[in-house]
């Protein structure tokens, strides 16, 4: 998993059963997903999204990309391209850990 985006004051730490869990913050996820936006338009293609979910440690990045598209804003006519903000919201709901 990716651990190089720790920003002081922007992480969510919880303790469960004696283990500390550090979750991605909204700011960290925004920077992370923007790193996969090759053309800088604020949207990711299916392949870019899949690569990002792979790097997040998702066991099935193709499924996660599909689910993110299902949860994304439906105003877009092209469902194969995902808005970075929608991806961040979805990843926060999924609770990815650093």
UniProtKB/TrEMBL annotation:
Xref: SUPFAM superfamilies? EF-hand
GO MF: calcium ion binding
InterPro entries the record matches: EF-hand-dom_pair, EF_hand_dom
Q: Out of the domains of life, which is the source? A: Eukaryota
Residues of the EF-hand domain: 24-59
Query: Would you tell me the protein name for this molecule?
Result: EF-hand domain-containing protein
């Amino acid at each position: 998993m990716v651990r190089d985006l720790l920003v002081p004051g922007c992480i969510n730490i919880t303790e469960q059963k004696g283990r500390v869990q550090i979750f991605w913050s909204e700011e960290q996820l925004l920077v992370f997903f923007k790193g996969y936006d090759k053309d800088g338009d604020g949207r990711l293609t299916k392949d870019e999204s899949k690569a990002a979910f792979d790097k997040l440690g998702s066991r099935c990045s193709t499924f996660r990309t599909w689910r993110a598209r299902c949860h994304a804003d439906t105003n877009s006519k092209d469902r194969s391209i995902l808005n970075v903000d929608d991806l961040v919201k979805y990843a926060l709901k999924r609770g990815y850990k650093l």
